[in-house]
């Protein structure tokens, strides 16, 4: 499963390009002899990975690195008859947290004395399941099993995912043989260089996660609460009906919605496209004289962005894909003829 939470923040709390990325990857399990694998073996592994992403209870610490930045975080995940709940805690001096359940996502920013709340996405709608369809993915990626080795004290099976074109990244996954949890992941450039690394350093599996572990102790009366955005009802949306002229092969639309930004009340159109493994988001907002939207390219590790103006609107495309793909998608966006 790939989770990409995008939150638009009020003025004074916005990060570069107006979004916060919290990227968590969870997946997983079964045992095979690496020397005698088949394509069907890989499909079974990936199918079990999707199942375990939603069903394993754990409390773990992981490190995440991109470029010259290294972050340590604690991740607590619970799944029961009530659904799924997660709590992500930054272990740096900011103490930032993200808490997610079936109905909402709460971002706690102690360094800014702020709490941002976003309505949760309907189960099964977004993000798309990983993998969506192994048979479809095999058109665009090559999957192979590699060796087994220890990660965070657990025996893990390594899986290689190699793209068949230049518009996607490669992946190396290390999956816990006993539980199926993704313990380590590398995201690779076209030359095989790791762009991002994710690795659990310790993990504790639990039959039950107590409620106390999923509650923040950071919030106080002095905190200001914000609604991240207000979704515009479908019948009231005044969409401009945009064309996306080019997408990498296999990318299909997963989501489209419109929001009202809290900072200026402007409508924001948001579209998400996925090939079942990677996602690309398109944000469209009316241009104003005082805004500072991205023009040209930018990146944060493996996440690339590209923005430009189209007929009085700001178009920004963001995704965990090579810059060439993101730029080409952005340049292809246009308004439909009425």
CATH homologous superfamily identity of the largest domain: Lipoprotein localisation LolA/LolB/LppX
Using the coordinates above, name the CATH class of the largest domain.
Mainly Beta
Low-confidence stretches: 1-36, 122-129
Q: Could you name the CATH topology of the largest domain?
A: outer membrane lipoprotein receptor (LolB), chain A
Q: Quickly count the helices.
A: 3
The end-to-end distance, rounded to whole angstroms, is 38 Å
Largest sheet: 12 strands, mixed
Strands side by side in the biggest sheet: 9-10-11-12-13-3-4-5-6-7-8-14
Could you state the order of secondary-structure elements as H and E?
EEHEEEEEEHEEEEEEEEEEEEEEHE
* Estimated structural class: mainly beta
Overall pLDDT, averaged?
80
Any idea what the CATH architecture of the largest domain is? Clam
Q: What number of structural domains do the residues give?
A: 2
Strand content: over 45%
Relative helix content: under 10%
- Count of DSSP strands: 23
Rg from Cα:
20 Å
Overall geometry: globular
Task: Write up this protein.
The protein has 338 residues and is mainly β. The protein has two domains: 2-214, Lipoprotein localisation LolA/LolB/LppX (outer membrane lipoprotein receptor (LolB), chain A, Clam), CATH 2.50.20; 229-335, 2-Layer Sandwich (Phosphorylase Kinase, domain 1). 9% of the residues lie in helices and 48% in strands. The strands form four sheets. A twelve-stranded mixed β-sheet has the order 9-10-11-12-13-3-4-5-6-7-8-14, with helices on one face. Strand 12 and strand 13 (194-205) form a beta hairpin. The longest helix is centred in the first third of the chain and has 17 residues, at 39-55. It is globular, with a radius of gyration of 20 Å. The two termini are 38 Å apart. 34% of the residues are buried.
């Amino acid at each position: 499963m790939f989770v990409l939470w995008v939150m638009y923040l009020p003025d004074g709390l916005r990060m570069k390009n107006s979004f916060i990325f919290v990227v968590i990857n969870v997946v997983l399990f079964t045992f095979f002899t690496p020397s005698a694998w088949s394509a069907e073996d890989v499909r079974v592994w990936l199918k079990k990975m999707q199942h375990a992403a939603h069903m394993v209870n754990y409390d773990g610490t992981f490190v995440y690195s991109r470029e010259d930045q290294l972050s340590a975080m604690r991740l607590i995940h619970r799944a029961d008859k009530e659904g799924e709940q997660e709590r992500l805690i930054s272990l740096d001096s900011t103490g930032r947290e993200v808490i997610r359940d079936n109905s909402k996502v709460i971002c706690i920013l102690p360094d800014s004395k702020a709490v941002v709340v976003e309505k949760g996405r309907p189960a099964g709608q977004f993000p798309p399941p990983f993998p969506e369809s192994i048979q479809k993915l095999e058109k665009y990626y090559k999957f192979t099993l590699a060796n087994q080795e220890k990660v965070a004290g657990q025996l893990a099976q390594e899986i290689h995912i190699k793209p068949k074109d230049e518009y996607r990244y490669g992946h190396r996954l290390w999956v816990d043989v006993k539980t199926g949890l993704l313990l380590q992941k590398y995201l690779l450039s076209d030359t095989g260089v790791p762009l991002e690394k994710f690795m659990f350093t310790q993990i504790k599996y639990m039959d039950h996660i107590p409620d106390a572990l999923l509650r923040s102790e950071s919030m106080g009366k002095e905190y200001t609460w914000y609604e991240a955005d207000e979704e515009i009802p479908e019948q009231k949306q005044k969409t401009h009906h945009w064309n996306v002229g080019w997408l990498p092969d296999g990318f299909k639309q997963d989501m489209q919605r419109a929001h009202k930004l809290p900072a200026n009340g402007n409508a924001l159109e948001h579209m998400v496209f996925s090939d079942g493994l990677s996602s690309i988001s398109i944000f469209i907002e009316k241009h104003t004289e005082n805004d500072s939207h991205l023009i040209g390219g930018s990146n944060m590790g493996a996440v690339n962005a590209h923005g430009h103006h189209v007929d009085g609107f700001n178009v920004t495309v963001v995704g965990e894909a090579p810059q060439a793909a993101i730029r080409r998608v952005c340049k292809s966006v246009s308004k439909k003829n009425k």
